[in-house]
Amino acid sequence: MSSEYDSKMTPNLKKPRKTPILPNEIKCVLLQGYGSVRQMKAISIPRPIPSDGEVLIRVKSCGVNFLDLSIRQGLFSDLPKLPFVPGFECSGEIVQLGPNTPGFQIGERVICLPRFYAWSEYLVINCNQIYKIPDSMSYREAAALSYSYLTAYILLFEIGSIKIGQTVLFHSAGGGVGIALSQLSKLVPNIRTIATCSKSKFEILKNQVDFLLEENSDYVSEAKKICPEGVDLVLDCLSGDNTNKGISITKPLGKYIIYGTSKNLDGESKNYFALAKNWWHVDKISPIKLYEENRSLSGFNLHNFLFNQMFSSRRYIQDIFSKLFNLYRDGHIRPVIDSIHSFDDISLALARLQERKNIGKVIIEPYIDEENLTKDGQENINSSDTDGPDEPDCQDD
Amino acid sequence: MSSEYDSKMTPNLKKPRKTPILPNEIKCVLLQGYGSVRQMKAISIPRPIPSDGEVLIRVKSCGVNFLDLSIRQGLFSDLPKLPFVPGFECSGEIVQLGPNTPGFQIGERVICLPRFYAWSEYLVINCNQIYKIPDSMSYREAAALSYSYLTAYILLFEIGSIKIGQTVLFHSAGGGVGIALSQLSKLVPNIRTIATCSKSKFEILKNQVDFLLEENSDYVSEAKKICPEGVDLVLDCLSGDNTNKGISITKPLGKYIIYGTSKNLDGESKNYFALAKNWWHVDKISPIKLYEENRSLSGFNLHNFLFNQMFSSRRYIQDIFSKLFNLYRDGHIRPVIDSIHSFDDISLALARLQERKNIGKVIIEPYIDEENLTKDGQENINSSDTDGPDEPDCQDD
């Protein structure tokens, strides 16, 4: 299958756009059942048509998140009916306008944050869920920035309210959010960062984070050695049985924010028993204990915020994107792309996250445009070929 | 008993100070046993002498806090051995310097935040626990400001991080902290305040708070009518069984902060059973629920912060006092004094808080200086005479 509409994903290029010729069949990643990696496949489906308030996007790059692993395993409330197209974030170009889409034009470059359905060559999306990106930002950077930097920004500045001279501890320093946290926290003077990651990433990440601790080590004891008075802000994407342990290293008036539950996703296939066991280990917290100890416990779940608490989020998200785009333009932040895979290689892309091998964002694209490889972050891209993956050992449900 | 050192509590008056003649016997409020109001009495004791790093303060005005009710009932961890002098805050003048007290001089006007022992005519205190006050601030205002405005400032700006256009809900609008919260929150543009108090206070407080709700009403339902999208910040000094109910009115990314447990202090005498029952009703909170719902739960306990987590608090508190003193000088905040009682009338002072009759701060002084009455907030002072109180009905333990 080939694209009839061969756009170049070059940033800094403004030219008048005509309505492109659109294919009848499009490529997407479809989740056919829960559990095994075999259930997620690139297939062809008919091109969708935008309705009232919607636009059609030609998708260029999609982000892969840890949350997508829980989608594949069915460990997510409020999933669409199977089969469906997963994916929460992508970047692309508006190629068709539905009725009542004022303020948008064909050819505009945008980030899309749909409820699901992002991993598709063409995507119909409500105008409320798209955000125009700067000319200087590549599609790949846009896809790498959206969920990770939004999450990191809200954690540090909105909920965490970090201040000059404070200390922040986070996990998965090499992940998309981890990279964003290390870049954004450095915008505040004299911030100290402590982060965990696998030992194999220490060399690459040593300039990003002030103190690197080995994941699965007793990071609480290690952090106490570095910071005996306690940490101002702990950002926890692991959850599981780490929460109570982690809270003990916050200093008075310190904050602990849970923003993920990746500890519950270590199995390959759907495992409700393991999930329940991990959930159970998340001890409940006594409000009186927080009162006695001057501590804060918060939760942040971007997907729930966007789609179950939507009433006020559009403007809020737009404001944060504006700030992020300014920081990008001024060179203060720069999304790191770990690897780019074609839709055909979705299992490789997911495995990279599940095995915690990535440094930066894992990106998938309908087809990998070789020309782009020479433009977009060629230094840190491991692209997988499009001839089909060597699927890792897996187990059907 | 009369004071040999008759200073006038006039603000704006700087004159060279000599070491005053100090009395051998001083007046204080002593807690002799837990439970009944009869256990707290004004008596005479020998004047203490400052040691290394300490100064002697001639106390002019003391604040009475809700926490003092729990002290009287013995419902407080880490109490001194009986009998002892209670009281966490007072204002006064330095009258004697111990060895090694650089940076302090006789005659300096200060706020004192001792661990206990504030309710005394003369007080020995470590220099780390005193803060110089502006010339324009009366001793009574200083005593009324210290705990209440520190608490309110930290709740709103440090933990709560309130922003333009947000909505804040708090209880006990007429209390010392309530008044401070209403004044400080108005420093942020377009803040909406919702607060509870007894109906009898509505007329007096109607200009302080945007929406007044009756205490003991279903304030959650009432607040939802005013603010269907939810409240950004809820400040809870009641705790008890209100916490879970209260959390439900926070909006996404909203914060709920517990800073008191006054619901546990409704009885006159020590009642561990009632306490345990109320404590029990404070349901524990699931971190996963906070994660799913994008909510924050925090606790703030100023006394614990100052005395059990002291390592970093001195400078922190000094910074906040500096900000508060600037706000005071510029006329943005003005402590409200409910009533002034002599040490002899301590039971009346405590009853005023326990019965929630106060609007603003309840102050006690060794002796009420009549001259001061004409200087300090004469419009809102109900002073009790010094001939001894009509003690309310009470029950010995």
Structural features, described:
Two copies of one chain form a homodimer. Chain A is α/β, with parallel strands linked by helices. Chain A has two domains: about 25-145 and about 305-385, Alpha-Beta Complex (Quinone Oxidoreductase, Chain A, domain 1); about 150-305, NAD(P)-binding Rossmann-like Domain (Rossmann fold), CATH 3.40.50. Chain A has helices spanning about 65-70, 140-160, 175-185, 200-205, 220-225, 245, 270-280, 285-295, 300-305, 315-330, 345-355, 370-375, and strands at about 25-30, 40-45, 55-65, 90-95, 110, 120-125, 130, 165-170, 190-195, 210-215, 230-235, 250-260, 295-300, 335-340, 360-365, 380-385. In chain A, strands 3, 4, 5, 6, 7, 14, 15 and 16 form an eight-stranded mixed β-sheet that branches. A six-stranded parallel β-sheet of chain A has the order 10-9-8-11-12-13, with helices on both faces. In chain A, strands 1-2 form a two-stranded antiparallel ribbon. Chain A is globular and about 65 Å long. Residues about 1-15, about 375-380 and about 385-395 of chain A have low confidence and may be disordered. The interface of A and B includes residues 159 and 301 of A. β13 of chain A pairs antiparallel with β13 (about 295-300) of chain B. Chains A, B: This is Enoyl reductase (ER) domain-containing protein.
